[in-house]
């Protein structure tokens, strides 16, 4: 195993507990779109029902899936307009209520002090939202300009599980996959990192207790080389990758 120089962190529910808040805002908007397109939903979406289906995907990714499933279409202009609106709705919620994931701040602080690894954020969410999130909880100081968004940073917007955003982040930082480790909490994020050739630590901390075991399997099946239930396990998980144990 080569030397690990870089740690790439997903944002939503890896650094900050944003998924519930974001999906709440998102559900309202998707219900509104469905009504305007005369889509006959079995029942209106709630934050919770959206999370079950789309965790780790951005709004553009969700809308693509929903258009295929419910056989309706939107113009590019319409979609862009809704993407902007969703961003505004979600950012307002995050600025009001967002908190960091349990235990992550202590780990970030220690990593920054040791100064052994470059730290970056690699997210599916829009850059404006990611920056608003890490600024709200005071984590922005750890990452500088190394904040990358599949929705905003790429020449062509995409969403995880597409590996494009990881490949882009590594190119911008001049890093190779074998010197990076990623931390991801979703299937789509884990697939994205794995497809980019990166060793992924699967993090299941924010899931409800009864879902954790299932998610551990989902993330392992998606390619996570080690599972972390709590940020206090990060050092051990990283050591396993560095020693070539996993």
From TrEMBL:
Q: Which Pfam families match?
A: HAD_2 (PF13419)
Cross-referenced InterPro entries: CbbY-like, HAD-like_sf, HAD-SF_hydro_IA, HAD_2, HAD_sf, PGP-like_dom2
SUPFAM superfamilies named in the record:
HAD-like (SSF56784)
Q: In the record, what terms sit under GO molecular function?
A: phosphatase activity
Judging by the UniProt lineage, the source's domain of life is Eukaryota
Please state what the protein is called. Answer: Phosphatase
Q: Which organism is it from?
A: Podospora australis
> What high-level taxonomic lineage is stated for the organism?
Eukaryota, Fungi, Dikarya, Ascomycota, Pezizomycotina
